[in-house]
Design goal:
By secondary structure, the protein is of the alpha+beta class. The chain has two domains: 6-236, BirA Bifunctional Protein, domain 2 (2-Layer Sandwich), CATH 3.30.930.10; 244-328, CO dehydrogenase flavoprotein, C-terminal domain (Enolase-like, domain 1, 2-Layer Sandwich). The chain is 36% helix and 27% strand. It contains 13 helices and 15 strands. It has an eight-stranded mixed beta sheet with strand order 7-8-9-10-6-2-1-11, with helices on both faces. A four-stranded antiparallel beta sheet has the order 14-13-12-15, covered by helices on one side. It has a three-stranded mixed beta sheet with strand order 4-3-5. The relative contact order is 0.15.
């Protein structure tokens, strides 16, 4: 595999910040440039949840407050992650419309680095994981902006797995599907297998992907992006009244749907879960707003929307079931 020619955004002058800072840096370079970048960073103890997740369903909020752990909500889908100073967060900002190609090429390249530099047989598995001896060392996520893609993830080096287990409360069905009973059973730290400093792994990744470097950041213009991510309403999620609910697991993760049905029509709706959107979810929502709440009408809209191009691994039958197979509370 040829070496990618990315520009490394050096964040060494900003160690262990709130994750909103680093997510703000990502978004700034995604939206204001057409160059391709790579970032590697470590934040203070934090939980970073996916765009569509419901905060209270994913984490122990009392424990989080007790331990002084930060919360951030990213713009990409997928599940919640716990991060601290002893792991690496990596970010690719690329000019592409192909999620599949990026995941395959760039995760494979990370596996190649661990094999060639450290003798570790790291493998790319599932929808977004890197595994070592069958246990997860990395999860990743993505989102599109116009013709550009942010692809970012974690690398567990020496993370406090006990604290991770206390903080994260994933869906039990998700754990059972992985053959484990707890978060800590599913993951492992790289430090258990290699006796090298975290800085060495960081350097190896930078060398593998980058040919140029940026050291000075335009903090004044990055600041508004950071502040938007710190908005409490965005982090907590909007609370609305709905009278229909359904939830299911599918190949692409878990997804829940809440609808407000009034006068026989869908007046509002929201999706939650750890699924991945391939397009802006507002586009899909607008197609469903104000249509009659009838199975045939909904099925026709879903077919026309080409749902597999909107939600990763979703199909028409499953999505139709999500919208019409749940519980409707009559007034």
């Amino acid at each position: 595999m040829t070496k990618p020619s990315l520009t490394y955004i050096n964040l060494d002058a900003f160690p262990h910040q709130d994750p909103a800072f680093y997510l703000g840096v990502e978004e700034y370079y995604l939206k204001t440039s057409d160059s391709e970048y790579f970032l590697v960073w470590s934040c203070k103890p934090s939980v970073i949840i996916g765009k569509h997740q419901i905060l209270a369903n994913e984490i122990d909020l009392d424990y989080l407050q007790q331990e002084g752990i930060s919360i951030a909500r990213r713009f990409s889908g997928g599940g919640a992650v716990y991060a601290d100073e002893h792991n690496l967060m990596y970010t690719f900002i690329l000019n592409t419309n192909s999620k599949a190609q990026v995941f395959s090429e760039y995760l494979s390249k990370i596996c190649e680095v661990f094999k060639s530099q450290y003798g570790l047989d790291v493998t790319y598995s599932g929808r977004n994981d890197l595994l070592l001896n069958g246990q997860k060392i990395s999860g990743s996520s993505f989102y599109f902006y116009q013709n550009r893609l942010i692809f970012h993830g974690t690398l567990l080096y020496d993370v406090d797995l006990s604290k991770m287990s206390h903080v994260l409360h994933p869906d039990k069905i998700k754990l059972i599907s992985k053959g484990v009973q707890s978060v800590s059973q599913r993951v492992c730290n790289l430090k258990d297998y290699i006796n090298v400093p975290l800085s060495s792994i960081k350097k190896s990744l930078i060398t593998a992907f980058c040919t140029n470097e940026i050291k000075v950041l335009p903090l004044a213009v990055i600041y508004p992006y950071q502040q938007a991510l710190l908005n409490k309403e965005y982090i907590q999620g909007k609370k609305k009244q709905y009278n229909y609910h359904n939830q299911l697991n599918f190949k692409g993760g878990n997804i829940a749907c809440d609808l407000l049905i009034k006068d026989g029509k869908i007046r509002d709706l929201a999706f939650s879960g750890d699924f991945f959107m391939l397009k802006d979810d507002d586009i899909l929502i607008k197609e469903l707003i104000n249509i009659p709440y009838e199975k045939k009408e909904i099925c026709d809209i879903v077919k026309a929307s080409n749902i597999s191009s909107c939600i990763l691994e979703m199909d028409t039958a499953t999505f139709t079931t999500l919208l019409v197979g749940g519980e409707l509370k009559h007034e």
